[in-house]
């Protein structure tokens, strides 16, 4: 299912930059991934969404740490980041719902991106496509814990 099938041309607001700081005491982050994807594509989608979230939202990833013997380990997420399986229709509906709520921040990742070999190829393909026609592979969502839990509480962990 594409966004066009779900919304019949409705414009989806740009929600990716709403939240710039993550507070583990009040916020929750999750990644929904298309359960029909093969494990390699699902893993790729989740990793790209995680990188995007970590780059765009301060406080989601902690500082680098060192072991007693001085080996450096990069920072990891400061709060659990559940990876949940969803159908394509559920993925689209949750993306649209979260994008429409100002307290939520969304990080969509598409099958269009997965089909490209270079960033330039992706940039050109994305510029030539309408977002409503681009199938989603995964969506990262950050928002108030209560809202996120209500939105994704019924989804199983990806296994």
From TrEMBL:
InterPro entries: DUF2000, Pep_tRNA_hydro_II_dom_sf, UCP033763. It holds the Pfam family DUF2000. It comes from the Bacteria. SUPFAM superfamilies: Peptidyl-tRNA hydrolase II. This is DUF2000 domain-containing protein. It comes from Speluncibacter jeojiensis.
């Amino acid at each position: 299912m594409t966004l066009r099938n779900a919304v019949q041309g409705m414009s989806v607001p740009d929600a990716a930059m709403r939240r710039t700081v993550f507070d583990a005491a009040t916020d929750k982050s999750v990644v929904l991934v298309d359960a029909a994807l093969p494990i390699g594509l699902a893993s790729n989608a989740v990793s790209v969404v995680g990188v995007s979230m970590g780059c765009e939202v301060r406080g989601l990833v902690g500082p680098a740490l060192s072991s007693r013997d001085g080996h450096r380990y990069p920072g990891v997420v400061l709060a659990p980041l559940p990876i949940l399986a969803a159908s394509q229709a559920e993925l689209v509906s949750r993306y649209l719902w979260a994008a429409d709520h100002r307290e939520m921040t969304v990080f969509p990742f598409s099958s269009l991106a997965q089909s490209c070999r270079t960033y330039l190829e992706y940039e050109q393909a994305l510029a030539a496509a309408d977002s409503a026609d681009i199938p989603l592979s995964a969506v990262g969502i950050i928002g108030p814990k209560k809202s996120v839990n209500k939105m994704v509480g019924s989804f199983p962990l990806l296994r």
